[in-house]
Design brief:
The chain is an alpha/beta fold. The chain contains six helices and 14 strands.
């Protein structure tokens, strides 16, 4: 089980695109026509062989639009995990009594979106691809868009909760992965990445607060963010309303 994609939500897709490309040094993106049925348009970038997505509403009454209103602006939206045994993952979801918000089984592509009220923090999607290296949401030619001279991959997601203990316990149950306490936070280890559960400190409520990116030169990335006014008061990078934790690649 690995963290394959993080999705953010923003009101202005073009503004988010400009900031993300400038700061993280990403290549071309893919517009997935499939998100249109949710009243959205998007951009998906490969970050190594992981992916970063931004969705933005194109009409009123969308789940994404309601989240923007609820959390007071741009921020995290989805955590997408990839598994080899989707049947077993779906069985755990059912055993945990989690409702399925959406589900699809196609030619080498399958996913289950879990209802956020039943797991907390975000829309959690559990996906499977055949072959394993494929990533349908990045488009058929995503490898041509890979640039790793600045950013090498997404290696973590941070979810904030009013009760990190309870939320991490629920995610641990649903994912079948052990959690461990690390100071004032809980973590769930994945293959090559981790999920962190922390207390709400920004007044925006529960949600995906940030994500970790392995970068070649953290100081250079931070300087690019500073030049665009994208540092928070603590000096951290913020893109599309989400904190970006820079990890040395």
């Amino acid at each position: 089980m690995r963290l394959r994609q993080i999705a953010l939500v923003g009101r202005d897709l073009e503004a988010a695109r400009a900031d993300i490309v400038a700061v993280l040094g990403l290549g071309g993106d893919y517009a997935d026509p499939g998100v249109g049925k949710y009243g959205l348009h998007n951009a998906v970038w490969p970050v190594g062989d992981t992916f970063l997505e931004v969705v933005a509403p194109t009409q009123a009454g969308t789940t994404a639009g309601r989240l923007l209103d609820k959390r007071g602006g741009d921020g995290g939206y989805m955590v997408i995990l990839q598994v080899r045994d989707l049947a077993a993952a779906r069985a755990r979801v059912a055993a945990a009594g989690v409702r399925v918000a959406d589900q699809f089984d196609g030619d080498g592509v399958a996913f289950t979106h879990l209802h956020p009220k039943d797991v907390g923090g975000a829309i959690l999607s559990i996906d499977a691809m055949e072959p394993w290296e494929r990533w349908h949401w990045g488009g058929p030619h995503w490898r041509e868009n890979v640039r790793t001279d600045v950013s090498a991959g997404i290696v973590g997601a941070e979810l904030q909760a009013s009760d990190p203990d309870a939320m991490s316990a629920r995610w641990s149950e649903v994912l079948g992965r052990e959690r461990r306490r690390d100071g004032g936070r809980w973590t769930i280890g994945l293959d090559g990445s981790e999920l962190r559960f922390v207390a709400v400190t920004d007044g925006r409520g529960e949600g995906v607060a940030g994500f970790d990116v392995a970068v070649r030169d953290p100081a250079a990335v931070r300087a690019k963010a500073r030049a665009r006014g994208l540092l928070n008061p603590e000096g951290g990078v913020v893109l599309c309303g989400a904190r970006v934790n820079l990890v040395q690649a």
